Amino acid sequence: MTEPVRFDRHTLVLLRLRQDAPRHTPEQAAELQNRHLAYIADRVAAGDIVAVGPPVDQDDETLRGVSVWSLDPRRARELAEADPAVLAGMLTFNRVRVPHSMADA
């Protein structure tokens, strides 16, 4: 009897600019962006994130980042919530409700 095929689990995280994001001076914004980028780089180095970057040529200006985490959704959410930009109230992400049918959409 053959073993069942096991697939890797990945979680897609979309970071959005919060509508109620606090205002920062250019220096504060740069410092927060540096902490955010360092955090993401650390997660990549740890193997938690396999792909990450800002979206380009898109219509939704609130969409600021897309990442694919090699973790289950619960752990990916825990780590995404620890991002300095999320903790500072600049960025957020939402759970995506998946419809079961067109009637449920």
Notes on the protein architecture:
This protein is of the alpha+beta class. The protein has one domain (11-92): Alpha-Beta Plaits, CATH 3.30.70. 31% of the residues lie in helices and 20% in strands. The chain contains three helices and four strands. Strands 2-3-1-4 form a four-stranded antiparallel beta sheet. It starts with 10 loop residues before the first strand and ends in a 13-residue tail after the last strand. The mean pLDDT is 91.
Give the class from helix and strand content and strand pairing.
Answer: alpha+beta
Query: What is the residue-averaged pLDDT?
Result: 91
Number of helices: 3
What series of H and E elements makes up the topology? EHEEHHE
Instruction: Output the CATH topology.
Output: Alpha-Beta Plaits
Second-tier CATH architecture: 2-Layer Sandwich
Multimerization state: single chain
Question: Mind telling me the C-alpha Rg?
Answer: 16 Å
The counted number of beta strands is 4
Counted up, domains total 1
Major sheet size, sense and barrel closure? 4 strands, antiparallel
Percentage of residues assigned to helices: 25-40%
Q: What is the class in the CATH system?
A: Alpha Beta
User: What spatial form do the alpha-carbon principal axes imply?
Assistant: globular
Sequence of strands across the biggest β-sheet: 2-3-1-4
Tell me the β content: 15-25%
Compute the separation of the termini in Å. 40 Å
The CATH homologous superfamily name equals Dimeric alpha+beta barrel
Spans of at least 5 consecutive residues with low confidence: none
